[in-house]
Amino acid sequence: MNLNVKGKSKGAILSLTAAVLDLAVLIGWSIYAGVNAYFNPGTLICLILAIACSALYFASEKPQLDFLPLAAVLSGSLAFAFFGYISLPVWQDGISGFHMYGSRGSLESVIVLTAAFLIEIVVGIVCCFLRKKEA
Q1: Cα separations (Å) of 119 from 14, 19, 24, 93, 112?
Q2: Considering only CA atoms, which of 80, 81, 53 is closest in space to residue 69?
Q3: 78 near 47, Cβ under 8 Å?
Q4: Angle CA(22)–CA(25)–CA(26) in degrees, nearest 5?
Q5: How far apart are CA 119 and CA 125, in angstroms?
Q6: On the CB side of 114, how many CA atoms lie within 13 Å of its CA?
Q7: Dihedral (CA of 97, 102, 106, 109) sign
Q8: Which of 53, 63, 86, 117 could form a disulfide with 68, with the two C-beta atoms 3.0–4.6 Å apart?
Q9: Is 59 exposed, middle or buried (0-12, 13-18, 19+ CB in 10 A)?
Q10: What predicted TM-score, i.e. pTM, was given to this entire model?
Q11: What gap in Å lies between CA 123 and CA 39, rounded to an integer?
Q12: How many CA atoms lie within 13 A of 75 on its CB side?
């Protein structure tokens, strides 16, 4: 296991970037979920799994673990799906202009978290197409 960034390929560095973005999304989502009582264990588990997959891919030198960026993207996407399902009442109330569905939280925070989720998913997808080792 090599934890040094120097000498790593672009794919490995982007994987570390994805892990940091996943951690930022996890912190932001945890604050949002804690304040507004929208906690979902599925989102938590999937984000932790995405962080672990990205970090392990960065640290590992084994070619058998080349599937980890894809696993990180899949678990991050599933976390986004869980978050999207839980935040539907906020979207509906925010777009309609009145509180018909009894949502908690603000539409602005949901938009920011949605953008953060999408950024971390795109970074993970790009990481899937980059090589771990330089040719």
Answers
A1: 13, 12, 11, 25, 11
A2: 53
A3: no
A4: 85
A5: 10
A6: 14
A7: negative
A8: 53
A9: middle
A10: 0.86
A11: 25
A12: 22
What are the tens digits of pLDDT across the range 22-70?
A: 999 999 999 998 888 888 899 999 999 999 999 998 888 787 888 899 9
Burial (CB count <10 Å: 0-12, 13-18, 19+), residue 46: buried
Single out the residue of 110, 96, 122, 133 nearest to residue 10, CA to CA: 133
Which amino acid type is present at position 88? L
Question: How far from 21 is each of 14, 17, 28, 115, CA to CA, in Å?
Answer: 10, 6, 10, 12
CB 53 within 8 A of CB 85: no
Terminal CA-CA length for the chain:
20
